[in-house]
Amino acid sequence: MPPLTGHGGDLPLLDLRALGTAADRTTAAKLVDEAFATGGFLRVVGHAVPQAAIDRIAERSRTFFTSDPAGKDTVQADMSDPLTRGLIRREHHEQFFSSMLTEDGRTVPPEYRDFDRSNRWPRLAGFRQSFADYYREVDVLATTLMRLMATALELPENWFVERFDQGFTPLVANYYPPFPEDGGGERLRHPAHRDWGAMTLLYQDDRHGGLQVRTAEGAWVDVPVAPGSFIVNLGMLMERWTGRRWVAALHRVVALPEDSRSDRISLAFFCQPNLDVLVDRVPSGAGDAASDPVTSGDYYRKLAQVVYGANAA
Ligand SMILES: O=C(O)CCC(=O)C(=O)O
Ligand SMILES: [Fe+2]
Question: At the fourth CATH level, which superfamily is domain 5-308?
Answer without folding.
Answer: B-lactam Antibiotic, Isopenicillin N Synthase; Chain (2.60.120.330)
